[in-house]
C-alpha cells in the first residue's frame, strides 16, 4: 500500500485517546512510507493525523472542498492540498488517490464516507481494504449493528467481513496488507439468506 485515506472527525471528541491515536496513526503511516490522504483540515482529529504524519517526515495529501477553505480550516503545511468543488468530488478524489481506507472516531461525515467506500466495495467498484481503528471501543455499537444486519438477512456475512477492525494500529495495517476482496455479489435472495 502506497497511500491510505483516513476519515475522521474535525473535532477532538471527549477522550484524549482519540487525538493520541490519530497522531500515532499518522506517525506510523509515515514510518512505513505510506502516504496519508485525508480531508485537508487543520482541526480536530483531522489535524492530528496530518500533523502526526508530517512531524515524522511523511507525505500528506489533503482534499478539501472550496467552501471549507473559505472557513480558514485548510492545513497550510501539507505536501499537497487539492481543492474540489463538492463533498462528493472530495470522496471520489480521496478514493482515486488511495490503496485503502481507515476510519478513526468521527460523526455523521466520517460514517457517511466509510459507508460509501464499503458500498462501492460491495458493488465491486473497488477491491481496497476498508478498516476502522476501534479506539477505546468507539465502534463497538456499529460492529454490533452490522452483526444484527447480517443475522436479519440484510447483509451477507462475506460483505460484513469486508470491514476490518482492530484497536491496534500495527494489527490493522497488517490486516489491510493481507486483505483479499470477496468475489461474490451483493444481492441476497430468499433462498440464500
UniProtKB/TrEMBL annotation:
Belongs to the LOG family. SUPFAM superfamilies: MCP/YpsA-like. It comes from the Bacteria. Pfam families: Lysine_decarbox. PANTHER family: LOG FAMILY PROTEIN YJL055W (PTHR31223:SF70). GO terms for cellular component: cytosol. It is an enzyme of class 3 (hydrolase). GO terms for molecular function: AMP nucleosidase activity. Its EC number is 3.2.2.n1. Keywords: Cytokinin biosynthesis, Hydrolase. This is Cytokinin riboside 5'-monophosphate phosphoribohydrolase. It catalyses: AMP + H2O = D-ribose 5-phosphate + adenine. GO terms for biological process: cytokinin biosynthetic process. It comes from Flavobacterium nitrogenifigens. InterPro entries: LOG, LOG_fam.
Amino acid at each position: 500500500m502506497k497511500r491510505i485515506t483516513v476519515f475522521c472527525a474535525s473535532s477532538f471528541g471527549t477522550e484524549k485517546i482519540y487525538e493520541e491515536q490519530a497522531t500515532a496513526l499518522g506517525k506510523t503511516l509515515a514510518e512505513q512510507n505510506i502516504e496519508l490522504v485525508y480531508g485537508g483540515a487543520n482541526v480536530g482529529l483531522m489535524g492530528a493525523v496530518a500533523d502526526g504524519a508530517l512531524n515524522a517526515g511523511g507525505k500528506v495529501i489533503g482534499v478539501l472542498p472550496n467552501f471549507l477553505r473559505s472557513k480558514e480550516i485548510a492545513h497550510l503545511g501539507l505536501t499537497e492540498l487539492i481543492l474540489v468543488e463538492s463533498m462528493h468530488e472530495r470522496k471520489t478524489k480521496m478514493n482515486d488517490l488511495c490503496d485503502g481506507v481507515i476510519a478513526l472516531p468521527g460523526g455523521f461525515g466520517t460514517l457517511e464516507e466509510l459507508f460509501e467506500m464499503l458500498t462501492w466495495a460491495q458493488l465491486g467498484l473497488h477491491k481496497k481494504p476498508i478498516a476502522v481503528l476501534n479506539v477505546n471501543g468507539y465502534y463497538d455499537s456499529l460492529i454490533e449493528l452490522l452483526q444484527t444486519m447480517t443475522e436479519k438477512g440484510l447483509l451477507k456475512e462475506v460483505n460484513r467481513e469486508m470491514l476490518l477492525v482492530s484497536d491496534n494500529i500495527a494489527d490493522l495495517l497488517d490486516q489491510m496488507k493481507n486483505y483479499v476482496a470477496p468475489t461474490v455479489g451483493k444481492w441476497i435472495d430468499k433462498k440464500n439468506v
